[in-house]
Each structure stands twice: as C-alpha cells, then as structure tokens.
Amino acid sequence: METTEKQEQGMKLFLTENAEKDLKTTACWTKFYAILYFIGVGVLILCGLMMLILGKMAFFPLMHEANSMMPMYDGPSFGFFGIIYMILGLLMIIPGMLLYQFNLNIKKALWNNNVATFEVAVAKMKSYWMFMGIYAIVMIVISVVIIPIVIIISGVCMA
CA nearest 132: which of 106, 94, 102? Predict the structure, then answer.
C-alpha cells in the first residue's frame, strides 16, 4: 500500500508515549546537529575563500625574504586547498539539509498524527545515514591512497 493511499484511507500513526517522546527528543537533536552542519559549512567556505585570497597575496615572498629559514608557501597550493575546503563545505550542505528535513517532517508527523509525513521523515533519516556511510567510505579510500603518495613524495624530496 502506497503512502498516499494510506492517507486517503485515513490511516493514523500510532506510537506509544515513550516512542513519541523519544522521537521529539531526536527531532530536537537533529535540528541542533543540522544547525552545526550549516555553521560548519559557513566556516569551511570562509576558510576556503581566505586561503584563495591569501594564496594570491604578495606577502608570502616578502615573509620568505625576511626569514630565509621559513619554508616558502606558494599561492597555488593555498588556492588548491582553498578550493578543497569550499567543495567539502558545499558537500556538507547535503547531510545538514537531510537532518533538518527529518526534524521538520517528524515534528509535523507527530503533531498531525500523519503516517505519510512520518514515512517521509524516516526516508530522510535513511538518506542521511546512506550519505554519511558513502562519505566515510570515500574518505577512507582517499586517505589510504593519498597517505602513501605523500610519504613517497616527501621521501623523494628529502633525498
């Protein structure tokens, strides 16, 4: 039976008091974490922009001239990491939105005793965990690939 058919037939959501209380608590916490995601997105994007700007500024060569022992950081590497930060920031909008949508839908489902909205909320939570699982796998694979490359390159540079 499809979700819309359930609503048309007047199916009501039935939960125990404890389950409803736990879902309300979960909704509050998911809203809190969604807000933290959005703050993190802003911080990552601002840091990325600052890295792009600092990478283009001319004071790095001046600092190197003043202290020749200081390693020279060039603009393109700062720019590259700035772009990576901004991409990661934009990517983190997705889990933040999924958590926020879960929060809105679960509150609406509990308020209206609505099965269809409850199913939408559960689907949003499922999507959040799928995204985070895929994200974790991708980050592990990237780490496993990049760390040996960095070790090899740094060994070649030291020789």
Answer: 94
